[in-house]
Structure prediction request, 313 residues.
Amino acid sequence: MFDKIVTVTLNPALDVTIWLETMDFNEPNHAVREEYDAGGKAVNIARVMTSLGMPVRALGLCGEDNARQFLSLLTADHVDHDFVQLEGVTRENLTIVIPDQRVLKVNRAGFSVSVEGMKRLRAKIEEEIAGVDKVLLVFAGSLPEKLTPEAYKAFLLSFRREGVAFALDNAFFHLSDIAEIKPFLIKPNLLEFRQISGSDLRTEQSIVKLARSLTSCVDHVLVSLGGKGLIYAGKESGCRIHPPQVQVKSTVGAGDTTLAAFLYSLQQGMSPCDAAIYGSAAGTASVSLDGTGVVTSQMVEEILPQVAVKGIR
Ligand SMILES: Nc1ncnc2c1ncn2[C@@H]1O[C@H](COP(=O)(O)OP(=O)(O)OP(=O)(O)O)[C@@H](O)[C@H]1O
Ligand SMILES: [Mg+2]
Prediction:
């Protein structure tokens, strides 16, 4: 498969979860627990790959004001990283858990990207892929201020050459972009698949039909359906995966986990359908964890026997 996997995060986040025991609008409320994680979709993907034991390099941009904190969290997760530091702050995504377990989410603004910053990142990626026979670049997540989807696509396509493949998890590409990029893998959820295609996709049959038609330009199409599971369509096979019901703590990052675990399984030599089953089981394992907790292979293996799968027509 690939000799190297590199994740690219342009808009990372410092995920901060704060637990309160009181919800008082007149007196200060004290945090009884606080947790910090390095976040952003491609960062999550790199954290899961690392946890599963697959080598990955995490590249990207971050804000220099809190870079030390952000990067030390990645180091603590044993993620092999190299980020370009830009003027400004890495955005903080706050999750405040109030006493009745409801959550309040606040996404703060972060750095805005400069042409110079993108140039520095391009040089790092070029350096990373130089001389590698088969490399997969994983582009996932939102864009920082001042970077348009068009500029992002041009950035991505500038790495296109023999031996370089792309995995995409972005909400803003359309079918025509995908036909142009010809990615190795896409993993939209249903809402994203509707946005990509501009159609309602009311029935499962219509989702399968579109996923299959995309295999003319994408090697592996994974459409995740939250608790309803996953549809996999590839050039040679396809399957519909139903995960077991589990107690849900947080669904954030389930799709990132699925994507990471699918790639991990392919790298291990599994068939695409078996890799999709493993990916779905990993996503399901992740929803039983708090916040941005990362699954281990042991957790995935506990779910695996309970996953049901059938072929698609
Ligand atoms: N409530 C749930 N119960 C069981 N499994 C779930 C649940 N939600 C998600 N999963 C598993 O995780 C996989 C990916 O989930 P989902 O479709 O929610 O991804 P997503 O919307 O891309 O998530 P994110 O972008 O936050 O990472 C599903 O295919 C399924 O296997
Ligand atoms: Mg997702």
Q: What stands out?
A: The chain has two domains: 1-170, 187-313. The chain has a mean pLDDT of 95. The pocket of adenosine-5'-triphosphate (ligand 1) is lined by residues 189, 224-227, 229-230, 243, 246, 248, 251-256, 258, 280, 283-284, 287 (CB under 6 Å).
